[in-house]
Automatic annotation (TrEMBL):
<dbReference type="InterPro" id="IPR011856">
    <property type="entry name" value="tRNA_endonuc-like_dom_sf"/>
</dbReference>
<protein>
    <submittedName>
        <fullName>XisH family protein</fullName>
    </submittedName>
</protein>
<dbReference type="InterPro" id="IPR011335">
    <property type="entry name" value="Restrct_endonuc-II-like"/>
</dbReference>
<dbReference type="InterPro" id="IPR014919">
    <property type="entry name" value="XisH"/>
</dbReference>
<dbReference type="Pfam" id="PF08814">
    <property type="entry name" value="XisH"/>
</dbReference>
């Protein structure tokens, strides 16, 4: 199992502030002979429908010297986890959690936007200082 990301607790707190119930920390995932783990699994009860909305969040900080290398790694991990999650828990939506400042300065570039759209990456952006979720995309 890999180490928790630098901002793991920030995202966990932000989800709880947004009324999510953290159900898994980490969320265990089996893909054939591989044991994987998505950082956080959470559920939110939608009162009007009386059914739960379930998510899993893979948290990334993008703080290394090469953001594009961080992105390549995150994208590959996201695609792998999404495929495994479909087999294990098809009702759970996977999100890639990224800091809001990284979203603003890196994820807004046309090349990254194209890759995010082409690979159908769901994004959750979080404010590190305030420990809140700022965006759910799409």
């Amino acid at each position: 199992m890999s180490a928790k990301d630098k901002f793991h607790e920030v995202v966990k707190t932000a989800l709880q502030k947004d009324q999510w119930i953290v159900t898994h920390d980490p969320y265990p995932l089996q893909a054939g002979s591989f044991n994987l783990a998505i950082d956080i699994g959470a559920e939110k009860i939608i009162a009007a429908e009386q059914k739960g909305r379930k998510i899993a969040v893979e948290i990334k900080s993008f703080r290394s010297p090469s953001r594009i290398a961080d992105f390549y790694n995150a994208l590959g991990q996201f695609i792998s986890y999404r495929s495994a999650l479909k087999l294990q828990d098809k009702d759970r939506q996977l999100y890639l959690g990224v800091p809001s400042d990284i979203y603003e300065e890196f994820f807004q570039t046309s090349f990254i936007q194209e890759l995010v759209q082409e690979n159908q990456v769901y994004l959750l952006t979080y404010n590190i200082e305030q420990e809140v979720i700022e965006r759910w995309l799409p």
